[in-house]
UniProtKB/TrEMBL annotation:
This is Na(+)/H(+) antiporter subunit C. Belongs to the CPA3 antiporters (TC 2.A.63) subunit C family. The chain crosses the membrane at residues 6-21, 28-47, 67-92. GO terms for cellular component: plasma membrane. InterPro entries: CPA3_antiporter_subunitC (IPR050601), NUOK/Mnh_C1-like (IPR039428). It is found in: Cell membrane. Gene3D superfamilies: 1.10.287.3510. Signal peptide: none annotated. Keywords: Cell membrane, Membrane, Transmembrane, Transmembrane helix. The lineage of its organism: Bacteria, Bacillati, Bacillota, Bacilli, Bacillales. It is a multi-pass membrane protein.
Length: 112
């Protein structure tokens, strides 16, 4: 199962790279969101599946589960959501000002 999720993460990275290299602003934003999801999956796989109990005081089980990968993924989800929201607001504002959603046309003319 971990191999399948690793392959899925790799596919998501390739799709995100393709979208980021396009010239449409919405595709670039979508590519960055997909890339962040690929990183979330990769962090989850790297954390691994550990079976055990929660670390409680007074108990002495043999194995504990590690909460660090879940905390990292939760933090990364919040940050990627905020970055995607900022990108969308910036793209919407630039579209309002210029009526253009294409990166090459946003550069202006050759004379400038």
């Amino acid at each position: 199962m971990e191999t399948l999720i690793t392959i899925l993460s790799g596919v998501l990275v390739t799709v995100a790279t393709y979208l980021i290299l396009s010239k449409n602003l919405l595709r670039v934003i979508l590519g960055s969101a997909i890339l962040s999801h690929a990183v979330h999956l990769l962090l989850m796989v790297m954390g691994g599946l550990k079976k055990g109990t929660v670390p409680l005081l007074g108990e002495k089980p043999n194995t504990y589960t590690d909460a660090i990968p879940q905390a990292l993924i939760l933090t990364a989800i919040v940050i990627s959501f905020a970055v995607t929201a900022v990108f969308l607001v910036m793209a919407y504002r630039s579209y309002q000002e210029t009526d253009v959603g294409h990166e090459v046309l946003l550069r202006g003319t050759k004379d400038e």
